């Protein structure tokens, strides 16, 4: 019954949307496109693609994609996020491009475009277009005034249910309201920017709490002529801090491509984290040679007055213009006297082929003092400590003993990747990569440390290896204009688990609306349990008017789980529907 109601509701929305007259297409030429706050998602995509193809008007393409990404999640969002990264890359804004590509891989880890974005990220991390700037050219202050503000408000209803053993349970029923706003104000050489992004999640189910998530809220002021500025609020930085933080970043240009940076703030690790943290640090970015760029930083972090991080890190990049590129990044923790991470990446174009490779080694999880909370399992209460302050005050352990426990109770993960892609004519692109991941120093689950043991021999030597092979084929305008087709084959396995997945996506644009269908088949085997999953997703997006957009999706899956030891099987059906409206202003 639930399935019929959900499909009936979606059908009514589609029929209602189609009853509207489609907007007339704009008559501007690609070079004369003037973006407004009434642009439709498909028009914004066209603007960005035109900017890339003509190698002109990149700023207009970026503005278009920023407007698109201010809208709630829809089928255009995935393409828009990739295009935004590519536009930043073409403009030479390396850090912004890397951020967008990382967002794509985190948000869409299993799509037809994942391989391509992964390669671009590796390329960007080992290349820096800014290093090719001629430093001898005289720099003059910018002149002019402009204001750009992009905002949107959206409301979406999510309904999900699961059926097994002839019993249906509603497991998701929520209203998600999102606000997105960003602005840029230019006054000659002074540029002021702000960004605000937050979601309000209201759950109608009693067992799920409401939540407000502020992912970004900052203001920055920059003197673009003197290269000096300040950024305050919730933000991220690649110069030492790990993840989002509430604080400030100040930069002071010394000329000739060299800048000093000072950072301080409070890491954001959730609103209810009982451990209080703060950090401070400094950094220098140097681009002394035409083919090289570098940066170095020092970052210190405290948790409830216990120093938990004292890291020295840096990156060195080399790029041959129009050719190969190599990058090396490392971080050493003075506190633990060990290497936190090391990454070596390379990208080599050979004819139509692009070959990329990666080696990454790092401590996992990050060497934070929270790792020491497990010591509480050895107390009379048999519970982990609540906070780092609780650990320090009640464990009766010295600081060195706590550090020793954290150090020896952390694994090292090594990752190797090699991949290649190439275009197949004008419409198709093929890509493939192989990844191997190894983990050493896994924790011995039978050993629980005590203060009397002086926290020794907490880790047994062990190895766990995993291997993944991915192949993808992406086509644009294959059957007709506005049509896209893609396929992805992925296979992975380790000592106890193997997974094989086959995904196909077909989409078609019809004027101001778009429909996409995805079908995925997955086989997962872990020890004696095997799962077979069939997933289908139908997405629909349309601009109802200049200011309102409709977005809807229906997802159905069937999972067959078989336990060969117990000789039992279970079939589960999962259903998810979301629909909502976006208002742009």
What labels would you give this structure?
single chain, 585 residues, 8 helices, alpha+beta, 22-stranded antiparallel barrel, disordered N terminus
Count the DSSP helices: 8
Overall helicity: 10-25%
Count of β-strands: 22
Q: What's the N-to-C terminus distance? A: 39 Å
Any idea what the radius of gyration is?
26 Å
Class per helix and strand makeup? alpha+beta
Average pLDDT figure: 81
> What is the N-to-C succession of helices and strands?
HHHHHHEEEEEEEEEEEEEHHEEEEEEEEE
Shape: globular
Q: List low-confidence stretches.
A: 1-38, 128-137, 442-462
Oligomeric state of shown chains:
single chain
**Major sheet, described briefly?**
22 strands, antiparallel, barrel
> What percentage of amino acids are in beta strands?
over 45%
Protein described:
With 585 residues, this protein is an alpha+beta fold. Helices cover 18% and strands 51% of the residues. The protein is built from 8 helices and 22 strands. The protein has a 22-stranded antiparallel barrel, surrounded by 4 helices. Strand 6 and strand 7 form a beta hairpin. The chain starts with a helix and ends with a strand. The relative contact order is 0.11. Residues 1-38, 128-137 and 442-462 have low confidence and may be disordered.
């Amino acid at each position: 019954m639930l399935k019929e109601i959900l499909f009936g509701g979606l059908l009514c929305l589609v029929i209602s949307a189609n009853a509207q007259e489609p907007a007339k297409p704009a008559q501007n030429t690609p070079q004369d496109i003037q973006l407004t706050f009434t642009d439709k998602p498909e028009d914004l995509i066209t603007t960005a693609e035109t900017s890339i193809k003509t190698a002109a008007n990149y700023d207009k393409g970026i503005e278009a994609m920023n407007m698109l990404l201010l809208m709630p999640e829809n089928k255009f969002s995935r393409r828009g996020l990739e295009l935004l990264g590519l536009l930043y890359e073409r403009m030479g804004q390396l850090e912004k491009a890397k951020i967008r590509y990382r967002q794509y891989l985190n948000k869409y880890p299993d799509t037809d475009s994942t391989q391509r974005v992964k390669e671009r990220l590796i390329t960007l991390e080992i290349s820096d277009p800014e290093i090719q700037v001629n430093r001898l050219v005289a720099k003059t202050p910018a002149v002019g005034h402009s204001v750009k503000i992009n905002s949107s408000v959206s409301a979406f209803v999510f309904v999900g249910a699961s059926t097994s053993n002839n019993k249906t349970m509603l497991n998701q029923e929520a209203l998600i309201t999102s606000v997105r706003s960003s602005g840029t104000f230019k006054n000659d050489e002074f540029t002021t920017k702000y960004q605000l992004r937050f979601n309000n999640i209201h759950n109608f189910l009693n067992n799920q709490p409401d939540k407000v998530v502020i992912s970004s809220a900052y203001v920055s002021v920059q003197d673009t002529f003197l290269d000096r500025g300040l950024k305050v609020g919730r933000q991220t930085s690649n110069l030492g801090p790990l993840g989002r933080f509430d604080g400030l970043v100040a930069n002071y240009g010394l000329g000739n491509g060299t800048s000093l940076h000072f950072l301080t703030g409070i890491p954001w690790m959730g609103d209810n984290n009982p451990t209080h943290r703060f950090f401070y640090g400094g950094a220098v970015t140097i681009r002394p040679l035409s083919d090289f760029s570098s940066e170095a930083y020092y970052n210190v972090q405290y948790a409830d007055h216990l120093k938990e991080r004292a890291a020295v890190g840096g990156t060195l990049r080399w790029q041959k213009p129009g050719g190969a590129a190599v990058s090396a990044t490392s971080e050493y923790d003075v506190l633990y006297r060990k290497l936190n991470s090391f990454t070596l990446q390379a990208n080599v174009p050979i004819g139509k082929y692009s070959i990329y490779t990666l080696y990454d080694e790092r401590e996992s999880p990050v060497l934070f003092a929270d790792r020491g909370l497990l010591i509480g399992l050895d107390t009379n209460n048999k519970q982990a400590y609540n906070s780092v302050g609780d650990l320090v005050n009640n464990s009766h352990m010295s600081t060195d003993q706590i550090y020793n426990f954290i150090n020896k109770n952390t694994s090292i993960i090594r990752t190797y990747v090699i991949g290649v892609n190439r275009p197949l004519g004008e419409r198709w692109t093929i890509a493939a990569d192989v990844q191997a991941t190894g983990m050493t120093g896994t924790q011995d689950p039978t050993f629980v440390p005590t203060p009397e043991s002086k926290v020794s021999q907490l880790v047994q030597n062990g190895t766990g290896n995993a291997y993944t092979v991915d192949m993808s084929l992406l086509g644009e305008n294959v059957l007709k204009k506005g049509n896209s087709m893609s396929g992805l084959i992925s296979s992975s396995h380790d000592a106890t688990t193997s997974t094989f997945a086959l995904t196909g996506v077909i989409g078609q644009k019809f004027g101001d609306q778009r429909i996409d269908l995805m079908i995925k088949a997955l086989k997962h085997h872990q020890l004696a349990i095997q799962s077979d999953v069939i997933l289908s997703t139908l997405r629909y997006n349309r601009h109802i008017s200049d200011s309102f957009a409709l977005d809807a999706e229906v997802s159905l899956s069937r999972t067959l789980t078989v336990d060969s030891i117990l000789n039992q099987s279970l079939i589960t059906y999962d259903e998810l529907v979301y629909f909502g409206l976006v208002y742009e202003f």
